[in-house]
Structures
1.
Amino acid sequence: MTPPLFVVASLGTGDTVELTGAEAHHAGTVKRLAVGEPAWLADGRGGLAEARVAEVARDRVRFTVLLRRELVRPQPRFTVVQALPKGERAELAVELLTELGADEIVPWAAGRSVAVWRGEKAARGVQKWRRTALEAAKQSRRGWLPEVAELAGSAAIADRVAAADCALVLDSEGQPLASITPPATGEVLVVVGPEGGLAPDELAAFAERGARTVRLGPEVMRTSTAGAAALAALSVAAGRWA
C-alpha cells in the first residue's frame, strides 16, 4: 500500500517535521499512524518528503525526514472552468479534476446552471470545493495542490479565455478533441458547461475571445465527468503523462 500523504505549511530543512491541527488529527486519530510507519509530506508547492513517524501525541505528530525532493511544476498548466453542477455532483467534479491533474479549478455561474450560488452560499461553496480538492490531492499523492478560484460569471470567464494560451470549450458540435495539439508550455483552459448546455451568447462570447469548441466523442457526458475526461486526453497529448 502506498504511504499516506499529509500537507504541511513548510518542509523546513531539519531532520524532523511536525504536524499540528487538522492534519495531525487526521494522521494520529483517523489514520492511527504508529511510530515507525512511513508517510509522505508535501507543502503543496512541489516540495515532497519521504518520512517515518517518530512520535504521536494528542495534538501533534512528529516525523523523521528520510528524503526530500522538489517536483517541477507540470507543463502546460491546466485550468478548468467548471459550470456549477447540482448536488453531490459538484464534489465529484472537483475530486475527478484534482485526481486528473487540474492546476486550477474555476467555479462558474453559467447562464443555464441549475445550481445557484449567491452571497454567503457562494463563499461556503468555494470553501467546500477547496476542502474537496485538498482531500483529493492527498488521496492522489499530489505534490502540487490545485488552486480553487472564487466564483466567476461569464464575463470574467471570457477574459480568462482571452488570456489563455489555448482555450477549449466542450461542445457536442465542436471539432474532435483528439485533433487538438496543446502547447508544451503556458496555460490550457478548458470550459465545461452545465447540464443544459452553454447558452448561445456564451458560446459566441468565448469564440470572439479566441476559444475553440471541441467534443470528446459521440457520447454526451455529464458536466461532472466531462472535464476529467478532457484532462485525461489532454495529459496524453501534451506529454504530461509520458
2.
Amino acid sequence: MSASTNEVGKRILIVDDSRAIQAIIRRVLECEELGQLDFQTANDGAEALDKVQAFKPDLVLSDWHMPGVSGIELLQALRQTGHNDVAVGFVTTDRASECQAQARSNGALFVLNKPFDNQALRDAVALGLGRSTLSSAALALGSSKPKPMPASAQAQALDHPAIESLAQAQQALFAHLGMRGFDLIRADSREAFVQKSPQLIALYGSAGRKGVYAVGLLDFPACWMLGGLAAGCSQQEMQSTREAGKPSTKQIEQATRFMRAMGPLLKKRSPSDEPSLNTARLSSQPLDRLASLTENNAGRTDLHLRIHALGVHGEARLSFMLAV
C-alpha cells in the first residue's frame, strides 16, 4: 500500500465473490496517485452490509452478479438504511443497458466492465474519493506541468469542437428539463475552467480506447439549475441550495444524468468510437491537470446557459474537452 503522510486514509470496501478479483482490484489501487487507502473485502452483498456498519467505507466497489445479495440489491439496501454518503461503483462483466440504467437510477457513481483498464479504475476511484488530482495517464498530459502546445497546435484544437452539433445539445437539454425556458449558445471565451466553488467533473470513455476520452464540466450554477429543475425541487429548495453554495444530492444526481446524455454527442474521432460517461463527481478543489487540459486538448466546446423559467433565473457554463 502506498502511504501518504499528507492525506487521511480513505476506506474502500471491495465486494466480489472472486477472491482473485478482490486481490487484483486492491493491487491496482495501491498506488502513489491515490494516496493512503484502507481496504476491506466482502464475498457478497450480505457480508458487505454487515461490514459497512463497522468499517464505514468512503467507497464501495462491487460486482453485480453474486450469490445471495447482488450488487444492485446491496446499493438499494445501503440507500434504504440511510447510508446515503457512501459512494458506490460497480466493476462487472455485465454490459447490458439494463444494468447501466439500474445503476444510474439508484445513484451509482460509475459502472466499469471487466476486464477493466487499470487507469480507468484508478480515475473512477479518484473521483469517487474526492481526490484533488487526476492521473497524468488518464488525461495524457505527461507531468503535472506539461509542456505548452505550440500556438499553431492550440489554434487547431480550438477549431475542432468536442461537441459538433449545438442543436443536438439543445435537444438533450430540452429532454432533460422537459421545457423550453432556456437559451444554450456557444461561448466565445476560452479561459481556464477551473474554480474554487463546486463543479461537476465528468470523465468519459470510449469502447476500444484506454484511459479518458473526454472531460465534461458543469459550474455550480449549472449543477443547481439543471439538477434542481429536473429533480422537481421547489423554489424554496432552489433558493436554499443557491445560498448554501453547494448542490444537493438529488441535484447532483440529475446533473450527472444530463452529463450522461451528452456522452453520445461528443465528437467521434474514429468510426468505432462510442463515447459514454464513466463517472462524475462534485469537486471544490482546483485541479492542476484539468487546468492544463483547457489549453492542451484535442477539441473543446464551451457553452453558455441562461434559464428564466419556473421562478429560476440564472446563468451558467458548461465545457467539454477531448483528451489528447
3.
Amino acid sequence: MNTQAMNPPTQTHSPIVYAATIGVDWADQKHDLWTQPAGDAEPEHRVLEQTPEAIHAWVAQLRERFPGQSVALAIETSRGALIHALHAYDFIVIYPINPKMLHSYRQSFRVSGAKDDRTDAMLLEEYLRLHAAKLRPLWPDTTLTRKLGLLVQQRRQLVDERTRLVNTLHSVLKAYYPLMEVLFEDFTAPIMATFVLKWPDLASLQKTPAARVRAFFYAAGSRRAKRIDERIDAIVKARALTNDSALLEPSALLAKTLASLLQALHKGIAQMEKEIEQTFEQHPDAPLFRSLPGAGPALAPRLLVAFGSDRERFESAQELQQFYGIAPVKKQSGKSQVIHMRFRCPKFGRQTFHENAGQAAKAAGWTENFYQQQRGAKKGHHASLRSLAFKLMRVYFACWKNNACYDAATYEKSLRARSSTLLKAATTSTQKNCA
C-alpha cells in the first residue's frame, strides 16, 4: 500500500514556498478575496458568490494559473461550509486565523475600529504572508478520503435531482394518467420510468394483452402473482380522465421525456454507488465505520468522510459536534436565554449524522431506547434524532480517535456498569463484523 497517499502530510520546519497568498473574508452571501501572487505582482481583489458553482470555478482558475504549485489561503475560521468545500483540493493550504487575532491586528492600524470586508481580506492575506511560519495549516486529507468525499456528495446531488424529477413526473401523471398511482407505490423505482416509456397513456396500455403486461412486471423483478393480478384488474377497470388530445398528447410526450431523464439518473446513481463501494473498501478505516450503529452501505462512507483520516483534525468530541452543527447554540443575556440549532455549518455533514441517528434509532438496543426516552420527554422526532446524534458522535469519536471498531457488547457492558436506564428492557445489539 502506498502510505504516502494514505497519510496526510505533516508540517515541517522548512519554509513552504507558495505561488500566491490569499485572504478570504467570508460571509453568508459572498466572499471578498485578496490575492497576492509571489514576487512583485500587483495584488488583486475580487468578490466571490457563495455558491458551489462560483467556488469551484474560482478554484479551477487558480489551478490553471498556478499549475503544479501550492497556494496559501487565510480565513477567519477553521469551520464552516467554505472550509469544507476547499478541503477537497490538495493544492490549497488553508490557514485558519482566530478572529481575535485578526481583530488585534486590525486595531494596530485602525484604532477607531473601522472595518470592511475588502480590508479584512487584505489584512488576512498580509498576516498570512508575513507570519506563515508561526501559523498552523489545516492540511488536506488523503487522496482516497477526498475522492470518497467527492463521490458521496455527487451521489447526493444526483439523488436530489432524481427526487425533483420524480415529483415533476408524478404531478404530470396525476393530471392525465392517475392509474399510475394505483400501479406503483414507489415512483423512484426504475420500473416506473420504464413502464411510462413503454405505455405513456392509458389507451396504449389497455390495447396491450394482459399476458404481455404480466410478462413485463415479471421481467422487471415484480413477481408476486397476487400483486400482478391486482395491477391487471386495475388496468382493465380504469377509465380515462379525458379523451381530449390537446391534453393527452403533450402530457404523454412530457412524461416520456421525464422518464428518459429518470432512466439516465437511475443508471448514473447505480454507477456512482458502485464506485463509492469500491473506493470505500480500499480505505483502511472502512471496517471501523462499517461497524458503527446504523451505518449501512450509503452512510458508512459518508461518516468516514465526515471524520476524515487525520486523527488530529478534531481534538475533542465537542469540537466535532460544534463543527457539524449538532451541538446546540446557547445565547444568554441577563434573564433571557435562547437555545437553537447552529445553521452555519457543513450541511451535508450534519445531514449525515442526522440520517445515521435515524437508522440507529430503529435498531434494537440502547440507541432505540435513547430515542424512545427522548420522545417520552415530549421531544419531536427530529429533535430526538439530534439528541441521539449528539450522543452517538461521542461514541464514534472515541472509536475514531483510538482507531478501534465499535463493539456493541462492550459499550452496553459499560452502560450496565453505570446502571444506565438505556438498557432497561433492551436486548443486546447485533454485533457488526469488524474484520
